[in-house]
Amino acid sequence: MEDKSLEKALEIYSALITGKIVSKQNKETRDLYNDFYSDSLVYEITVKLLKSLNLNLYEYNDSIFISAGDGNKVFGYTNDDLKKTMGLKLNKELFLVYFIIYQALLYFYTDSSTYQIKEYLKLDELIKLVSQAADRIAKEDEIFEKDEDNSRGTFRNIALFWHELPTATSEDKDRNKASRGSKLGFVKLTFNFLSEEKLFNCVDDRFYPTDRFRAIAENYFEEYKGKVYALLGGAENA
Asked: Which residues contact 224 (CB under 8 A, 6 or more apart)?
């Protein structure tokens, strides 16, 4: 019995780690989803296996997803890995990508108590949101002067870098092409990566969040909101 449950748990793990959607609605993985919830031993073994590999398990909309845990260098990305994957050269380019993702996240989730997610985000609208956030950060000189380790100074450098970029270049005439030479190009570059990670579906100039994105966004901030709160400055900069 235990051997059979272990075999099923390994099947579920294999499906998840290879990017398959284990879901009640997915014909290919429906049986695995049912095994996960109907057999307590399969559930227990799967959860323990994922935890031992520092993988987070998230459940959403009759589906289960995994993501790399904090500091997981085997299944996650280091900064250098991500720069190489996205074709970036400088740290400030990577930090700008993080900043764009953060603004997109805020657009869909104002806070963890209200999960009224919007259907999609337009490319031009996101550029405007990032510019507005960069404006606010660039003006908050007093915050950066008080920061002894200059960690928030990095945010100001990102804001200044964003403002130095033109909105678009001649290369951006092809709206599907991503480059590092403009605001539009950086947003497209960011969402090309998020699309490959199955976090967004990109249709023309609209970005639609997937269930995987929703599962990770909602569960991650419930689990790590204290850490995120501290990184953002706690009560002082809430």
From this structure: 70
Q: Is the pLDDT of residue 126 over 70?
A: yes
- On whether the CB atoms of residues 65 and 213 are closer than 8 A, the answer is no
Q: What is the edge-to-edge ordering of all strands in the sheet holding 22-23?
A: 22-23, 63-68, 55-60
CA–CA distance, 47 with 57 (Å, rounded to integer): 7
Q: What are phi and psi of 135, to 5 degrees?
A: -60, -45
Tokens 């660039």 correspond to 138
Q: How confident is the model at residue 235 (pLDDT cuts 50, 70, 90)?
A: very low
* 206-209 β-sheet, strand order: 121-122, 206-209, 200-203
More confident residue, 67 or 238: 67
**Rounded CA separation 51/45 (Å):** 10
State the CB neighbour count (10 A cutoff) for residue 74: 8
> Three-state DSSP class for 131?
helix
Strand partners, 121: 207
